[in-house]
Each structure stands twice: as C-alpha cells, then as structure tokens.
Amino acid sequence: MVSVAFVDDHPMLLEGVQSIFRRRAGFTVVAVGACCGDAVRIARDAEPDVIVLDLNMDDDPYACIKVIKANSPNTKVIAFTASAAVSHAIQALEAGASGYVLKGGPLTSLAEAVETVVHGEIYITQGFAAKLLAAMKQSKSGDDLKLSQREDQIVRLVLEGKTNKQIGIALNITEKTVKYYMTIIMNKLKVKNRVGVALVARGLMSSDAPVANNRASFN
Fold first, then answer.
1. Domain boundaries, position 79
2. Sequential DSSP letters for 85-123
3. Which of 25, 82, 115, 153 is least surrounded by CB atoms within 10 angstroms?
4. Which helix (H) or strand (E) holds 28?
C-alpha cells in the first residue's frame, strides 16, 4: 500500500482527492491538512510515502517543501497547483518536489503521479513537461554542459533513478565520491538538487521531440 497525505486549503478539492484515493486499490490516505505547518507535521508524524501539496497557500510552500525534504527525506512531495508558470515549477522542483501536477485536469491523474514518484521518477503534467524542459534547456549555455566521462556516467544513472549508494556500487567508487561528483554536476547545470539534474539532463540528452506522455520518466 502506498500511503498518501493531502494538504490543500480548499475543503471541496481536498474532499474530492481523498475520495478518489480511498476508492482506488493500492493506496491509503493517512492524513490531510490545510496549511504548510500541517504538511511539515504530517511528514514528521505520519511519514507518508507521498504528500500532495497545494502551492497556493498563505504560507511559503517552497520553504515548506525544503523543510519536509530535510526532515523527512523518504517522503516524496508532489506540487498540486493551478499555476502553469515555468518559474513556479522550477522553484518547486529545486526545493525538492518530485512532481508538478496542474489542477484542472482529471483528478485521477494524481494517482499516476503518486505511483510515478514512489518509484523514483519525476512526474509533470502532460504538455507542461515539454514546456518546462525546453525552458530549462534554453537557460543553459554550452560551457556549462561540458561533462567529463565520469560525470556523464553518473548523470545517466541518476536518470535511471539510482541513489548515490547504488551509483557508487555500479561504478565501483565510494558514495562520498559520488556526492563530490554530484556537487560538480549541479554547479555545471545550475541546479540545486538531483531532481534538477534529472530534469535538465532529460531535456539535453533527448531529442527536441515533445514529451509524449504524462511522465517525465528518466529510464
């Protein structure tokens, strides 16, 4: 069972997403909240696999995501929002979110998003994924993208959803060495975390063809 929590300050929407997940096999709703403080508390106390977090709340949702990821690193965060602004998506993903789902689409798409992030992939709403990857790709200069052979190997393993420990085993290097290379890679790509690395690398290593499905899948 995948445990899920929802934090949104719109009661009707909150009730709707709960209802969908309670009827769907394989999921259990462990908590709900209405503010960022609730989200941090839920992550700490309930330890859900995934928190679906509204970005349009009075508190600072981006700071909230950072706190959740710092204190509860095993909990994935999906930003659930009406904003189709690329800047908001980049900010949420760089804060540590593993998914960005636009409101207005079918609520059942959230189930796919949850299933995706639980398996270590990134989920971005269909159509918006191509727009986001194009924007991130355009913001990088050629000088920033000259990766060494080892850095390229590590990035490709990140795209497969591997942890630092798993990357170290695959390349026969220490986890500490992987962390060292990840710092260099993040600086080169001008991103703040491995989610940003995955997003940028996905856009740079693929063709310019648009993303064909909801998943920004990095396998």
1. 2-125
2. -HHHHHHHHHHT-SEEEEBTB-TTHHHHHHHHHHTT-EE
3. 25
4. strand 27-33
